[in-house]
Design brief:
alpha/beta, Rossmann fold, 2 domains, eight-stranded mixed β-sheet, 9 helices, 32% helix, globular
Length: 287
């Protein structure tokens, strides 16, 4: 059994989120794990990494952001909204992360790090971009920062993506942005409403922050980040559309500030079996 505290986080926009706090209640250093698309605070990364990261000065906060599971709800005192990976508005993720960061700060943390996994990486980078004048966080950790657009192109064996995008654009235009995509477009992609589909799977969306699949396109938001960034790519990531070394080189070239890029060998997207190595690399970088 692992000692853990159940916590409630209130975001600046007054939505309630729930999480688990591993380690000392008044830690000097806090690592906040941001789960990926349709995942939860109980994902393998969120569940396994804390045991290797927690020490006398370090706590780990895992929490359910509004994109948890496929369909869920998020509530404030005034309203309840549909959420989950299918209905999430990507730009609102900054409110979720702000709530978690301020929660850690209120609990005495002097050094706060955001560790995104999968689509959580885009949220972590976007958060720092939105709050660049006062990010509070001291560094970013990007675990398997896959481009969802590139993953969609890879799995588009029947050439349905272009048609799906056109359908989603039409739905948004006629006021149906929050209706789920038609059944024929639910595979091989995740279940999404129209606006979420466009956010995830189009090349110029706000969420497409790591466009390594687009030759010559600059990662403007990523390259603007000034705080240190640690990137870890899974050597056998099943969602990668090209060799891991090629993607690692792309991140190395597109992050202009202090950064380190590592490939964790012989692990898939969830880093199963490689958690100890991931934790060792993180600790080496954050002190």
């Amino acid at each position: 059994m692992r000692p853990v505290h159940l916590v409630e986080i209130t975001t600046p926009k007054k939505f309630a989120l729930y999480g688990l706090w591993y380690g000392p209640q008044k830690a000097e250093r806090v690592i906040i794990i941001v789960h990926g698309l349709c995942s939860t605070m109980f994902s393998s990364v969120s569940r396994e990494l804390p045991q290797h990261l927690v020490d006398g000065k370090t706590a780990v906060l895992v929490f359910n952001n509004r994109g948890h599971d496929i369909v869920s709800k998020i509530s404030s005192a005034k309203k309840t909204l549909l959420a989950g990976g299918a209905h999430e508005n990507f730009k609102e993720s900054a409110d979720d992360l702000r709530g978690a960061v301020l929660f850690a700060k209120k609990n005495g943390a002097k050094f706060i790090f955001l560790a995104g996994h999968s689509t959580g990486c885009q949220k972590a980078v976007y958060y720092v971009h939105v709050f660049k004048k006062d990010p509070i966080v001291k560094g970013l950790i990007l675990l398997a920062p896959v481009s969802d657009h590139s993953a969609a192109l890879k799995t588009d064996k029947s050439q349905k993506l272009r048609k799906a995008v056109a359908v989603a654009q039409k739905m948004v235009k006629v006021g149906k942005k929050n209706e789920l995509m038609p059944k024929e477009f639910l595979t091989p992609w995740s279940i999404n409403d129209a606006q979420r589909f466009l956010s995830l799977y189009t090349p110029d969306s706000t969420e497409t922050l790591f466009p390594y699949e687009q030759t010559g396109k600059k990662a403007k938001v990523l390259s603007s980040i000034k705080i240190p960034i640690l990137v870890m790519w899974a050597g056998k990531d099943q969602y990668a559309d090209r060799p891991s070394k090629e993607i690692a080189r792309w991140f190395d070239a597109n992050i202009t500030g202090n950064h380190h890029v590592h490939i964790v060998p012989n692990v898939k997207h969830g880093f199963n079996g490689g958690e100890k190595m991931v934790a060792t690399l993180i600790k080496a970088r954050i002190g």
